[in-house]
Amino acid sequence: MPRATAVKIVTGSLQGMLRVHMPHQRGYHIEDILLETELEGSILQLAAGNFLGFAVYSLQAVGSSYLQHSKIYEHWLEHTAANMVTGGFGGVAGVEHIAV
Known about the structure:
mainly beta
């Protein structure tokens, strides 16, 4: 199972390709890919944190070396482009929020 505290690199593309890498050593190795999946739309921004109340996808360990994703929530924006910011708003410690 991938270690929860290990450094992971998450990338997303305008073509909808989502990848999660956990590099073990210098250089690229196919074994470093934990997840590779094509989503239904473009990925405009990625954020990771300890969020409460809003999530789009959840990642679960599959076996000892891979992840799988499942859609938790989907919300369509009224406009073609948006921005998001994450952080501990309101001085609440230990919880992060998303503002779109």
